[in-house]
Request: fold
Amino acid sequence: MAPVSTDNLRGEEVDVVLEAAYFFGGPAADLPVNWSVFEEPFRLDVPGPYLEYGDSGDFLYVDIGPFFGGGGQGNFLISGEGKTDENGNLRITLPADLLKDVEAGSRIVNIEASVSDLSNFPVASRTSITFHAAETYVGIGVDNYILRAGDEVEVELQSVDWDGEPEPGRNVVVTFYRREWEPARTTDFGMYYTQWEAVDTEIASQRVRTGLDGAGVASFTPAEGGTYLVVAEVDDGSGRKNLSSTLLWVTDSRFVNWRLDPRERRMDLVPDAQEYRPGDTAEILVQSPFTDPVNAWVTIERGDLIEQRVITLNGSSELITLPIDPLYAPNVFVSVTAIKGVTPDNEANRFADIRLGITELVVSPEQLALDVKLTPQDEQLMPGETAVYDIQVTDHNGSPVQADVSLALVDLAVLTLKEDNALPILEAFYARQPYRSQVGSGLFISGEGLEPEIPLEGGGLGGGGGDFAPETALDRAAGDEDDDVRRDFPDTAFWEASIITDVNGKATVDIPLPDTLTTWRLSSKAVTEASLVGQNSVDIVTSLPLLIRPVTPRFMTVGDTLQIGAIVNNNTGAEIEARVELESEGLNPESHSIYRVAVPANGQTLINWDVSVPDVAFVDLTFRVEGGGFSDATKPSFGEGPDNQIPVYRYSAEDIVATSGVLDEAGRRVEAILLPEGVDTRQGSVNVQLSPSLAAGLLDALTETNEREINPNCAYGIADQLLSNAVMAQAITVLELDEPDLLKSLNDRVETAVPQLINLQKQDGGWGWCYSENSQPFLTTHVLYALTQADEAGYAVSETAIGRAGGYLFSQLESPESVRENWEVNRQIFMLYVLSVTGQAEPGLLSAYFDEHRVLMDPYAKALLAMAMDNAGASPNAMQTLIADLNDASNLSATGAHWQDANRDYANLSSDIRGTAVVINALTRLDAGNELLPQAVRWLMVARNGRAWPTTHESVWSIQALAMWMVNTGELDANYDYGLNVNLESVTNGSFSRDNVATTQEVEIPVAGLLLDDVNFVDVERGAGNGRLYYSMALDSFIDASMVTAVNRGISVQRTYYDADCNPEREQCQPIDQINAGEQVRVELSITVPQNLLYAVIEDPIPAGAEAVDPGLETSSTALAPGTQRTDVEYRYGYWGWWYFNRIEFRDDRVVFLSEFLPAGTYQYTYFLNTTIPGTYQVRPTFAKEEFFPEVNGRSDGLLFTIVE
Reply:
């Protein structure tokens, strides 16, 4: 988008030209456009030193308090719609009265437009226009902003046009004010702060007419020190005016009452320029509040201390002179700490005082920049051809230099989605550094001599809550299919970290191009041995004369009926009669597969095929076009596998019910299964595992744990798998099990997980919940424990990482006197135990908790304390007492022995399963002959939910405990026959012996083979002989989602679709179940939780023919930004509801919400869908759960939604 004129007077009509084009070349013609217009204030920026344009001196000053300020895209003005012409253009006219109701002054007008092509997928773009209040601006400044009382001040004036060029002969009124400040203590959100009111007293005024060069001078002589404001107002000759202002600071031998807040212990330092170059000399005004001479400590620093000295401040207007060294680039900080001593005989000086002033000196790093030129030998190519680029690197003087250059060839369509997350290399190397020092003194927080402030009730504010490059086209070339179908669509076609130019700064690189039709951007970054840096980029286009673009959903659902489409683009100057074909495997076609169409010159045509989706796992599609002597064939640009197959989901609610058990001796166990109403007999099964030993059972559990999907950004999931894999690898080695392939797999997983965790470690040494910026004590303890177990198993783990994590945990330890709650005691014991594993035991603290809080500890905490005391070499008496407590606290039943928490310890993710596993671990280690152990092992194995335990967290602790018990007991003896019968018919039978003691017999019984309206009996039989038979059984059934109603198991979930054009703040909106393609849907999710949730996950599937609008993408309209609110309470100052969601992910088939902590309440989340592909779609229910306690969950109803052509 580009305005016909980027600069205009207020009140003028302006046209904006939108140009839509395809990345593969050619205009995007005859497409619908929606546009909106916003406005915000403008200030002219004219390059050059000294002069200020605009109200830099805050002549119109308003103190808005500490919590509010500007932001956003501006105020909405108007909106409209249109259509691109044959060249892909649209002219949008902004009327002359656009700003008639907007406050005076120059304004920026922001125009946003979104264009949808034949695929109905919108792409947004933005541009801006400046509407000036007058044709002339005036710049205002002085050679030195720090002056002396009694000296004449000359103020330079410069009248300029909108481009910053001199505008001669303009009348300027210059007014001089003395500015004083009146402070008042006030409150906002229950917090005290100082509010300042500016009091400006006019001192003098002059009229100046600028000369032929636009320059002018005004002057005045300040009689006394202080802050002065100079305001210049220029007339452009037509009665229109613009205003600029600047501040001056005037020093005085007499005391000057600067703007200082005695409660904040600060003073201002004012440099005489905004930016310096090496060789300049800076003068810094110290605005001291002290009337008598005081000593001051001056530092120059940037991370490290560069220079320091002690000076005497003889008055309130001392000047410090500082030569600018080249090493100061890009910035340094100057701090002055002034200390006033006590004069006992002086009533006015009874208290010591301190003031700290800090200012930044910005120094240009331009001499450190490289100039990198990239020149393609061809700018237009076809897919599969080779692009050749010439590289030339020079320094800031234009001299060639040898440099190390990295190159990345990336699809520009991808780069337009988000701004580059890497800083420009010059800024990355030489960015202005933040101030990192801390100056400490009790005087900073002393309240001596100040009026007391009584804290207010309530108030306060809430806060806001790739390691490897992709493979290149060259890497993939060897494995490409030998046909004419385009299927290789990488985001990154080429990546090379290091290309060394020769002594003349030159290099050449050849890059094979993949199958994508797009604009490819080659980006470079260069660095020399002397750390000179630079970067550049250049574009090329890959296209075809005749091409075909698939229009498909990213997934499908069984039972959907929809239109699969393809857009044929003719990039030639003549009409083409084309043959278009869809080859599909996995779809039921409901129309012809071949069409013949006329594609206009430099135009496009959309072809649709009506299809329905049967019960398949994937759909394989190939689109072909030929005509006019040209052809193209392609797979979809996204999907799974080398052919980009489209995944197919089932419109059903998966329902898994599982049980398990143990046969210690010859006998049988019968389990009854009644299939649920509405079960889908085409899918689902009963899966039975028969294991002759703990080894076999644990290997099954480990396999399922490793198969569970984990987020690579979530440390807890990585730690879970690391802990179980490291422990099992160690057990396999100790027991000398013949499992070389499994052991290699475990080693690979451990060696991958360890660096992943270390990369996620935060600066304070801890780890946090997924995308949270803050470390969390419990998760840090768990991750550190996993790393220590990997270390003990012989894997390489960074001692530095372990030490840093230990340091974080030490900072989180509390004395027993400060801990009162049961969960707090449990957590402190867990932390102390893991610290003892790292060799950092705290015997005194362990004994103190034993003495003071033993009664508050849950059984698992007592088990951890006993092991920690053993690690610390504590007295055996205390450990024996704790073991006795565990014996007394056991719960015996027909299924074995287990331990329960007094109350559910949600804060520490504990459960009876995890707690029992920890106790087994402790007893195995400290009291191996305990009679409860075999019964506890039995209970834990029976507690499995199929092959593993209900959550990954429980599985991990159970695997560790049982592996240690297995190592200790050597339970690897089996010698008996087994059998499995279903409804009196034999399914399988055989024998277990020492030869197959680590092997599980798995049987899958299809749901189709079971009785639908009667009870099914599964009979597990075990013959005489040594050993135990562990079995697990899981019914994995699918119920037609149309028969599944909403369920509330601790979370209530409701989902409603509305037309996005309906504004709920202005009218009553009605739910919809259909909408026209190309229009937007507003999705409202209502989540009600009666109790606080830890680590909540909400997944909302979307229709296959729609895409969720990700507000974080540059191509998304800002008008479709999502929102969160809490609807069960009202807040006086508004509500920052979004902070409860740490992460919101917009995926291909769903939107996922992650919350580290979700307080009890009702929440409404709103987001938007773009509807792109006509069809009738089955939308799976929204599902919410508590990550570590999945029995707390809820789901909404399913939905049948239609997108109308």
Q: What stands out?
A: Residues 724 and 956 are 5 Å apart (CA to CA). The mean pLDDT is 86.
